[in-house]
Amino acid sequence: QVQLVESGGGLVQAAGSLRLSCAASGRTFSSYAMGWFRPAPGKEREFVAAISWSGGSTYYADSVQGRFTISRDNAKNTVYLQMNSLRPEDTAVYYCAADSSPHVRTRQSTYEYDYWGQGTQVTVSS
Length: 126
Hints:
mainly beta
């Protein structure tokens, strides 16, 4: 069982930055791919970014490519999402998720993730 706790959300002006953190419990964190998702119109949650277990591969939605950076520190059981050049349309609850499968997958589907955090609110004012 893995528990995920997000933090770092808040209110920021457009063009500002925030860094989200997701702290994971459990000794197997370093073997899990991790992802960030947020709600979107017509979808329960849309893919934002993901990172492989080693950190060697990262994946981004087109809407955040070049503005957001995902990283992880396996020694601290934590994954981060650095968000720069924030826009009002980035306003959402951001959820951290863990994929325990050893297989290489798309990393972009909610169905691939086994564990979810409770979310942290990000609000970007114009």
